[in-house]
Specification:
536 residues; alpha+beta; eight-stranded antiparallel β-sheet; seven-stranded mixed β-sheet; 11 helices
Length: 536
């Protein structure tokens, strides 16, 4: 069965007012040439709009007129970068190209942010629409984002004169029209004809309810983080989900009901898949308390290694290491060589604001180079009983010291919301090294214990079946690592020539009296690099 989005939505009556989307999505683009990658886009309930009409026409070539419809606008910051539009009643395509007479299921629209008001005129925008449309928009995004004006799973802002109308039809065909707006010219992209969003597997109401009940039961008996959402009435969440799936005609719609149920737990690290498809209403935005160009402006040119380390030495002999990737064994050899090069610094800034995923084993070996002896850096605790607060005895997580020598000078560990999963684990480990000050903003608080729950009917949930604790026994998920030195700034302060977090840390580091500036490699077995204060 091809997706019938209409059946999943409740059509609301249109309010009498209009909305100017140029005011909702003001253009805020950097002055640059060529394509701009829109990476951290998002769309929420406030980005679903009810329209009195959506239309585009090129005389004698193409006429698209949907009439009453709803649209989801995806945006990068305030810049609108894509739209997903669904008609209340499927109209026909009128065209001299391929697809004439076929009924429109949905339109995926790619356009430049400056065109949002032209494509969606104020007189047609009638207020917010049904938030459930988000799930369908994100499904289509997953299949189409990498095609016209896309790269992989990232949308690229088209040239200002470009417009793409990418249509799936009820005839199970895909019709893509690439338009040069100023000249009124269109090209039909025939290569996409059969590359439609996959058909959905049908289901019956009783099966949908059974799947939802199974998902609720498995989460109830094994999910480890209910304590992070004490206000959630979990039993009522099941009732709501069963109500949501009452009209479900496909396993995807059933998975939407499960997704909405799990959303009430407010855990960004809960994932639902059906038939291998990710079901979501939003991709989490990776916030940053950092400016990479600002870092380079302050430090001068940094130097990358081949496997994910960026480093430099300041004129005052302070080391800087940034771990962009902690997923390869080769990185460990590079770190060892790097410490031989800058181990004679009297302080080291370790920047983890960009450190996200990798391997825990690699993180442990990285941290081991900064430890004189083995350290317990945290604990793992699994659910063990029927009650939400039944847990087994906590299992200690140990980081082993790794030679041939230990960096002994102070470490300034820089963290933020971009530090998560294995990056967050590395921060917990390094926090247990010798003279360490953590600085920046709290880490994201993601779990490292996600496990697969097979619900049945090809529905899978990835959820935390255990909880990460820090070395003091505090839960990490949903809270994150709290830095010793809290440094929070307005996003506008992170510019091409300033990273205020790094600047503040450097100011603090340079307050160290000259006689306390001892080299980090002073315990090398060879005896080289012993003692010795440095000058400013």
């Amino acid at each position: 069965m091809h997706a019938r989005v209409l059946t999943a939505l409740i059509l609301a009556s249109a309010p009498a007012f209009a909305e100017d989307l140029t005011a909702v999505y003001p253009v805020d683009l950097p002055e640059t040439e060529g394509d701009i990658y829109a990476t951290d886009w998002t769309a929420g309930p406030e980005d679903v709009w009810r329209l009195s009409d959506f239309q585009y026409e090129i005389k004698d070539k193409l006429k698209i007129r949907l009439g009453r419809c709803q649209a989801v606008i995806g945006h990068d910051g305030t810049n609108a970068v894509w739209a997903f539009v669904v008609p209340d009643r499927p109209p026909k395509i009128s065209t001299s190209f391929g697809g004439d007479g076929e009924k429109i299921e949905h339109v995926w629209v790619r356009f430049h942010p400056k065109r949002v008001g032209e494509i969606f005129p104020t007189k047609t925008v009638r207020g917010n629409g049904d938030p459930d449309l988000l799930y369908w928009a994100y499904r289509v995004y997953g299949f189409k984002a990498g095609d016209e004006y896309g790269a992989g799973n990232v949308t690229v802002i088209p040239p200002e004169d470009a417009l793409v109308l990418d249509i799936d039809t009820l005839a199970n065909t895909r019709r893509v029209y690439s338009i040069e707006m100023s000249k009124g010219k269109a090209r039909y992209k025939s290569g996409y004809l059969t590359n439609t969003c996959p058909d959905l597997e049908e289901t019956k109401k009783r099966d949908a309810v059974a799947i939802v009940e199974a998902a609720w039961q498995q989460m109830d008996s094994s999910y480890a983080l209910f304590e992070n959402s004490p206000e959630v009435d979990w039993s009522s969440a099941l009732d709501d989900a069963k109500s949501d799936c009452a009209k479900a005609k496909s396993t995807f719609e059933t998975a939407i009901a499960i997704r909405k149920m799990l959303d009430k737990l407010e855990d960004d690290d809960l994932w639902v898949f059906v038939g291998g498809e990710l079901v979501t209403k939003n991709q989490f935005t990776v916030e940053q308390n950092a400016s990479w160009s600002g870092v380079n402006y302050i430090l001068g040119d940094t130097r990358p290694t081949d496997h994910g380390i960026v480093w430099t030495r300041t004129p005052q002999n302070v080391g800087y290491i940034n771990f962009l990737n902690i997923g390869s064994e080769e990185l460990l050899g590079e770190l060892d060589e790097l410490l031989e090069t800058i181990g004679d610094t009297w302080a080291m800034i370790v920047d983890l604001r960009y450190t996200r995923i990798g391997q825990r084993e690699i993180a442990e070996k990285i941290a081991g180079r900064f430890m004189a002896e083995d350290q317990i850096y945290g604990y793992m605790q699994k659910r063990s009983g029927a009650a939400h607060d039944d847990f087994a005895e906590a299992e200690a997580l140990t980081c082993e010291a790794r030679g041939p020598w230990t960096y002994e000078a102070p470490l300034y560990l820089v963290v933020g919301p971009g530090t998560f999963r294995e990056g967050e684990q590395l921060a917990l480990m390094l926090r247990r090294a010798g003279k360490v000050v953590t600085a920046g903003s709290p880490t994201r608080g993601f779990n490292s214990t996600g496990e697969r729950l097979d619900i049945g009917n090809d529905v899978v949930i990835i959820a935390a079946l255990g909880r990460d604790l820090d070395s003091e026994g505090a839960v990490i998920q949903g809270r994150g690592l709290q830095p010793d030195m809290l440094l929070e700034f307005d996003p506008s302060e992170f510019t091409d020539d300033n990273d205020p977090v790094l600047y503040k840390i450097l100011e603090e580091v340079l307050k160290t009296p000259a006689h306390e500036r001892l080299r980090g490699n002073r315990n090398k077995p060879s005896g080289e690099g012993e003692g010795g204060a440095t000058t400013d």
